[in-house]
Amino acid sequence: LFAAVEMAPRDPILGLNEQFNADTNPGKVNLGVGVYYDENGKLPLLKCVAQAEAALQADPKARGYLPIDGIAAYDKAVQGLVFGADSAILAAKRVATVQAIGGTGGLKIGADFLKRLNPNALVLISDPSWENHRALFTNAGFKVDAYPYYDAAKRGINFDGMLTALNAAQAGTIVVLHACCHNPTGYDLTPAQWDQIVATVKARGLVPFLDMAYQGFGEGIAQDGAVIQQFVASGLDFFVSTSFSKSFSLYGERVGGLSVVCATAEETAKVLSQLKIVIRTNYSNPPTHGAQVVANVLSTPALRALWEEELAGMRLRIRAMRVALVEALQKAGVTQDLSFVTRQKGMFSYSGLSAEQMQRLRSEFGVYGVDSGRICVAALNEKNLPVVAAAMAAVMK
Ligand code: PLP
Ligand code: TYF
């Protein structure tokens, strides 16, 4: 039966973890996978999460099946975060939101629904994008292409190229956009540039799919979600996937969501019924624990305030590490302009290093980043920074 099965390639990022774990270099540093580590290099358990879990444990409940679209209070909390609690389109019941198995699950539910709706649509992702975007939409049955995004020479965004590609796209083309903290480059569009993208998407009849996996890691919860308001104001129908993996440090619980903005309450009810079919035929209904924790944190004022404080702490620590990395590289003799590092937003920095330089970082210094040149700034700390800066400076000379 399996004789003809070929070995699948490893995920380029998760595969790096295996290589890192097997490395015997005691000074090794993992800047590969997009995970936030605290100043001691530890994966944090947020206090708000621990408190919510303690409250749940103090009054343990049996675990029945959840509704297909998940915990109602959770879906409501997701909507509040993404669209703003006093959003007019929420009041008008124009948003269908379902609990999903991480941000990946939200993308997959949306992709499967879109495949039923518009099977011949082309999907456009950014060049480059999160590796899984291409694979996920391809496996959902779509042809996937890319629109220009990163401009290496400019150390920024090829905005004209992006706009030209979207203007040339056929009506119905699905456009996957990073709402904030672009993975892997760290370069985000300005609000004025977003205005132009929204206008183009609208004029060309494209289908926007916003992936928001890092809300709160750029400038703040509302600021990072501002692009959602711009799409709402346009009157367009659109998709938003949400992930709490990073913002709650709940990677393993798989907590996310999908929201679909529709034209009317009637359409929303129909769309929701179709999303539920996608979920039912894949895994019946979602798991309880992570979403219950997030729902309780977001809807309990004291826990919510604590979460916002802890999220701000992560955001500010990453920013401080960006500044410290630039200083350390300059001290180590790097003379090129490094201002791009502090212009980038979120967990990642496209360092501009070549695949060859990234491989040298691994083999000679035990510093693991992705061959694209992406490093996870959220994994830097006071202790590993000198090691990383010395290694980077050495391969940059
Ligand atoms: N989208 C982007 C851009 C990501 O970087 C990630 C990271 O993991 C995801 C989606 C998936 O999130 P999750 O781990 O919640 O599935
Ligand atoms: O880009 C990253 O590092 C994170 C984590 O298949 C990740 O988004 C990477 C690859 C993958 C799933 C998650």
UniProtKB/TrEMBL annotation:
Keyword annotations: Aminotransferase, Pyridoxal phosphate, Transferase
Keyword set includes Iron-sulfur: no
Q: Which Pfam families match?
A: Aminotran_1_2
The EC number(s) attached to this protein equal: 2.6.1.-
Molecular function GO terms recorded: transaminase activity
Domain named Aminotransferase class I/classII large: residues: 27-391
InterPro entries recorded: Aminotransferase_I/II_large, Asp_trans, NHTrfase_class1_PyrdxlP-BS, PyrdxlP-dep_Trfase, PyrdxlP-dep_Trfase_major, PyrdxlP-dep_Trfase_small
Q: Name the coenzymes or cofactors required.
A: pyridoxal 5'-phosphate
CDD domains recorded: AAT_like
Q: What family does the entry list? A: Belongs to the class-I pyridoxal-phosphate-dependent aminotransferase family.
PANTHER family, sorted? AROMATIC-AMINO-ACID AMINOTRANSFERASE, ASPARTATE AMINOTRANSFERASE
* Subunit architecture: Homodimer.
Q: What is this protein called?
A: Aminotransferase
Which species does this protein come from? Roseateles agri
